[in-house]
């Protein structure tokens, strides 16, 4: 996990997470999207 702070831009957080199944990963993504709809996901 990495966090970047800036005086003029929003805080950025990057996290690398491994899951045991595609369904577990999708459930976590759905949960996170529900709480922060503006977040973006890179790669998969």
Q: In terms of topology, how is this protein built?
A:
Elements: E1 2-4, E2 12-14, H1 22-35
Antiparallel strand pairs: 1-2
Distance between the termini: 16 Å
**Individual helix count:** 1
Helix content: 25-40%
Strand order of the largest sheet: 1-2
Please report which band the strand proportion falls in: under 5%, 5-15%, 15-25%, 25-35%, 35-45% or over 45%. Answer: 5-15%
**Beta-strand segment tally:** 2
Overall pLDDT metric: 82
Shape: elongated
What letter string, H or E per element, gives the SSE order?
A: EEH
Radius of gyration: 12 Å
User: Stretches where pLDDT falls below 50 for ≥5 residues?
Assistant: none
- What does the largest sheet look like? 2 strands, antiparallel
Category from helices, strands and their pairing: alpha+beta
Features:
44 residues, 1 helix, 2 strands, two-stranded antiparallel sheet, 14% strand
Description:
The chain is of the alpha+beta class and 44 residues long. Strands 1-2 form a two-stranded antiparallel ribbon. Strand 1 and strand 2 form a beta hairpin. The longest helix is centred in the middle third of the chain and has 14 residues. It starts with a strand and ends in a 9-residue tail after the last helix. The model has no long low-confidence stretch (mean pLDDT 82).
Summarize the structure.
With 44 residues, the protein is α+β, with helices and mostly antiparallel strands.
């Amino acid at each position: 996990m990495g966090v970047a702070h800036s005086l003029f831009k929003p805080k950025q957080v990057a996290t690398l997470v491994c899951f045991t199944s595609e369904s577990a990963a999708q459930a976590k993504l759905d949960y996170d999207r529900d709480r922060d709809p503006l977040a973006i996901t890179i790669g998969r």
